[in-house]
Amino acid sequence: MSRSFDMIASVRLIVGLEIHVELATRTKVFSRVTNPAHASVGDIAPNTLIDPVVLALPGALPVLNKEAVEMSMMVGFALNCTIADLTKWDRKSYFYPDLPKAYQISQYDLPVCFDGSVDLPAVDDKGFPDLTKPSKQIGIIRAHLEEDAGKLLHEAPGGFAIDYSIADYNRAGTPLLEIVTQPDFDNADDVVLFAKLLRNVCRFLGVSEGVMQKGHMRFEPNINCVLTLRDGHTVKTPIVEVKNLNSFKSVKGAIEFELREQPGRWVADGREFGPGTKVTRGWDDHANRTYVQREKEDAQDYRYFPDPDILTLRIDEAWKNRVRTAVPELPMQRFERYVRDASLGVKEAFALVEERDVCYFYEAIIDGMVMQGIERPRASKVAANLVLQQAFKRANEQNLLASEIGITAHEAAAIGILREQGKLGNQAVDELFDLLCTANLVQGRATDPGSAGSVPSSSQPPTTQIKDQLHTAFARVEQFAREWGLLIVRDDAAINTAIEQTIAANPKVAEDVRAGKVQAVGRLVGEVMKLAPGKGDAKTVREELLKRLTP
Amino acid sequence: MPRELSTADIRKVASLARLALRDDEIEPMRASLGAVLTYMERLQSVDTTDVEPLYNVNDGAANLRGDEPGPALATQTLMSIAPAPHEASTHPPFIRVPKVLDESGGA
């Protein structure tokens, strides 16, 4: 039978995703040498994070890192998985120069986590979650704990061509959590949103920094298509697994490329889905296309068997419960809460939930304002503005988190309150925010109570203590504002004089406002504020101006 | 009795284990591998219908380690025991390995 594009009536995409997450334990998964995926490790010379276990020297035996198991369990809980009662490790045998033992310790039939599912929100046209549309269920087949391999380089440092490869074993033995989804995706945007949310979840749980450029997360989509032919038959194309994608852009690019190419490949060669037809392809970031990789010899023949060096591990209910209680409210739940309770835009809410410590900072500002009698919805809104405008601006300039810029959450709350009381103008909010950040960084107050990023724990200090801390922060902020002349000391006479002078000095603008161009009043407000700094707030000045210039 | 191992089977198992078998080693290997399979066959005949799986006689007793860093091995030690010692043409502290065409790597 000859095939042609004309025969294809429609194409449906099917994607399942494998994700490798490097867990940020301090030490490697089976030995005590430092793990390069831990946040404290910067650039490190090749072959320095090695030991007899990593290098598979004779007699060295692996001992499992408890922290790696607990981090795996936390991810499992976040993905609504069942946590195994009994789990074991197996040897996956293959020869490759990045694998010192000639086998990888992985998990075959009893993974730590299995049978999960994730509620994936719909995506709007900008790639943000859309809560007004129904969500989709993405099944999680399993999440298992294994070890990473070393790294091979195919050119010498400095980019010189070599006719051999060179190996760095620093990464070998880094704990790696491999998460496998059901083939439940039908478009690239959903896969990317899932990947982003998973990254946020891992960062919230503190199990990974999620730095894509460092390879903390690597994605491998399994992609194929269902072709519905004009005669009513359906044809499935062979699965293509694209290896080692480490950016969201490449995940999207690879899936969309395969969706475009697979119908044509079927037209050309007629190959259909079936046992032994799966193909592995690489991704070329520059050409924006996948390419055939040389198949590993006997790639499927890993001869898994239980690793006799590691006994099976029992995880009892008490242990599971301990780990479960350590799982914080996750980013998607916070996102929904922010959108619903604080009526934030999806873009703003998404920006806030990207970092756990920024969430804690934001919520501590809200709590501080609420304790001082501001209604929660209003406090949420004011706090969001402080974080998204003042804090994010400063954080971007200094390449820090919004929660790390020096100001404490209680001080930010105090600024919010003063603003609400009409004691601070916009300009003064900016200045006061910056002054407090700088002063705190100079004095090293970042570890103060109520400071940024202080993680809420079950042993919260009593409310009275928090109130005391709040009062101290408020007093400090108000004093600061007063010393720097930022507080509005209401002086209606001074404002009236300034208004009269301004109208007299800007007859043309005043005329425009009288003629109905109300937005022109903004320029006059600015002039008045300059003439009488700190004597009134912009809102009152504006009202006063309009009263005089409009009937 | 299990099916006798073909020469192709033996060659495949040897190649997976990266063993270079001489032709005169095939027959002894057929005999010893066959004995292993025969023993497996005997195990298969045991009725395990109501027996819980046992992965290890010490099931559930894995030793766990706290996440406390220990010492690293000196890079120099690795260099001195590497099969292809670094020479002027190679790039310490990397280990030189045969050229790998497939660049996928990683776990």
Protein described:
The complex is a heterodimer of chains A (551) and B (107). Chain A is α+β, with helices and mostly antiparallel strands. Chain A folds into 3 domains: 5-314, no CATH class; 331-483, no CATH class; 492-549, Arc Repressor Mutant, subunit A (Orthogonal Bundle). Chain A has 15 helices and 20 strands. In chain A, the strands form 5 sheets. In chain A, strands 1, 3, 7, 10, 13, 14, 15, 16, 17 and 18 form a 10-stranded mixed sheet that branches. In chain A, strands 6-5-19 form a 3-stranded antiparallel sheet, with no helix packed on it. A two-stranded antiparallel sheet of chain A has the order 4-20. In chain A, 44% of the residues are buried. Chain B is mainly alpha-helical and 107 residues long. Chain B has a domain at 7-44. Chains A and B meet through strand 2, helix 1, strand 11, strand 12 and strand 20 of A and helix 1, strand 1, helix 3 and strand 2 of B. Strand 12 of chain A pairs antiparallel with strand 2 of chain B.
How do the strands and helices of this protein lay out in sequence?
The complex is a heterodimer of chains A (551) and B (107).
Chain A lengths: L7 E15 L41 E2 H13 L3 E2 L2 E2 L2 E4 L9 E4 L6 E8 L1 E2 L5 E2 L5 E12 L3 E6 L3 E9 L6 E7 L6 H18 L11 E13 L4 E3 L3 E3 L5 H22 L9 E6 L4 E4 L12 E2 L6 E2 L2 H9 L5 H11 L4 H7 L3 H16 L4 H23 L10 H12 L5 H18 L19 H21 L8 H14 L1 H8 L6 H11 L6 H12 L2
Parallel strand pairs in A: 16-17
Antiparallel strand pairs in A: 1-13, 1-14, 3-7, 4-20, 5-6, 5-19, 7-10, 8-9, 10-13, 11-12, 14-15, 14-16, 17-18
Chain B lengths: L6 H10 L9 H19 L19 E2 L9 H7 L13 E3 L10
